[in-house]
Design a protein that fits this description.
- The chain is about 0% helix and about 50% strand.
- By secondary structure, it is mostly beta strands.
- Strands 1-2-3-4-5-6-7-8-9-10-11-12-13-14 form a 14-stranded antiparallel beta sheet, with no helix packed on it.
- A hairpin with a 2-residue loop joins strand 6 and strand 7 (about 130-140).
- The radius of gyration is 20 Å and the shape is globular.
Amino acid sequence: MTTYSSARHHNETWVKDGYLLVDASPIDWAPLNNIMKYVTIRAGHFEINYGDAHFRRSDNGNSIRNALVGNYIMDAFTTEVGGEVYVRANGFMAMGGVTGGESRGMITNPQRRAPSFLTKIGYDKKFSDDFRFRLTGSTYATASSVSNTLFSGDRAGSRYYDVLQNTASTEAAQAWSGAIQPGMSNSIHSYVINPFVQFHGLEFFGNIERARGRAATETANRTWNQNVGEVVYRFLPDQRLYVAARYNTVKGQLTVGTPDVSVKRSQIGGGWFLTPNLLTKVEYVNQKYLDFPTTDIRNGGKFKGFMVEGVVAF
């Protein structure tokens, strides 16, 4: 179980998730023991395993896995109630899962609810201490939801406080400033491909993503595409220092029948691990909004500047 003390959006103590993970047979029976050498089962309320970027993002309780300060412009993260089954062998992995399609286990409006289906396949191999290769593909699909939060499930909020907001904004109500939440809250079909290569201290991670869906008030689907490339170089003994750069673009329709808009973000920075669980990060970010309607505050908008972040993880 994971509990948060407080967040920018949720200013109270609350439970993020709680689940059961089974990777050994509860019955000492040879056939089951052999199966469970390759199978893992997760059931409960958990952070769904869509894509690999959620392993590298800043969560409300832990930012140490994110080499930079901000998360992606379209941040795929949510928790749902359901189950996932994994099969792993010789570096290959396959996963299938079913959830209730919502971040909460509510039973109201059953006619608007449908299960969400998750799949993930991949290959992850560490060929030596200096070379690792990983490639995964993930899908997420739900036909109907009361409030699907695949791209709006972040409770902590953006690190870029109040950028491109009006004077009435608050830190809690406009918690995701600088991000794009495509508003596909009713139905969504999304897939993402994530390559990862590590050679000595050099890492490359990619995110090629496409999401198609609609809000409850829409009668047709919209499409959003996101591409991310990130490079990290870790050096010095124990790789305590690193430099990092990320380029992130998204493009899609704000509403059905309107022209595509796009957002482009460049990030460059680095970090210093003072201890294994204490990290200081510095980032320079430059973000631009293109082709937004003239009635949108983000029309012609841009922001840039430095961010400094301290992280404690335990």
